[in-house]
Amino acid sequence: MGELPSRYFLEEQNKPGEWYDDKEHKSNIRYKVDIFDKDSTSNLAVEINKIFASLGLRRTDCQDVPDPSHLRHKLMRFEGIVDLDSQLVYQYRMEN
């Protein structure tokens, strides 16, 4: 796993959102972030949230996950809709 705290991220989903005139115009994207540490993952999670928010992505999930290594493990997901013409990132309307 390497040095702690460790963080890994991947593009979990990238699918066409709007398609017209024989061209994709918007993409729905989702990133997954895993954070591991011996102690709390909270401070790093706050910093990661700031980074993704600055890119226009919204946090849609954040939870502590049991881990067989007995390390603290936090899972986070971030989503957005990318307008491929303007490169702006939009959000779905979220209800609680």
Descriptive overview:
The chain is mainly beta. The protein has a single domain, classed as 2-Layer Sandwich (Threonyl-tRNA Synthetase, Chain A, domain 2), CATH 3.30.980. It contains one helix and five strands. The chain has one helix at 42-54, and strands at residues 6-20, 23-37, 58-64, 72-83, 89-90. A hairpin with a 5-residue loop joins strand 4 (72-83) and strand 5 (89-90). The longest helix is centred in the middle third of the chain and has 13 residues, at 42-54. 14% of the residues are buried. The mean pLDDT is 92.
Query: Could you please say which CATH topology applies here?
Result: Threonyl-tRNA Synthetase, Chain A, domain 2
| Contiguous helical run count | 1
What string, H for helix and E for strand, traces the elements in order?
EEHEEE
**Proportion of strand residues:** over 45%
Q: Look at the helices and sheets and give the structural class.
A: mainly beta
Helix content: 10-25%
Low-confidence stretches: none
Assign an overall shape: elongated
Query: Mean pLDDT, rounded to whole units?
Result: 92
The counted number of beta strands is 5
Compute the CA-based radius of gyration.
Answer: 16 Å
User: N- to C-terminal separation?
Assistant: 36 Å
Largest sheet: 5 strands, antiparallel
Q: Tell me the name of the CATH class.
A: Alpha Beta
**How many domains, as an integer?**
1
Q: What is the CATH architecture descriptor?
A: 2-Layer Sandwich
Question: What's the quick description here?
Answer:
With 96 residues, the protein is mostly beta strands.
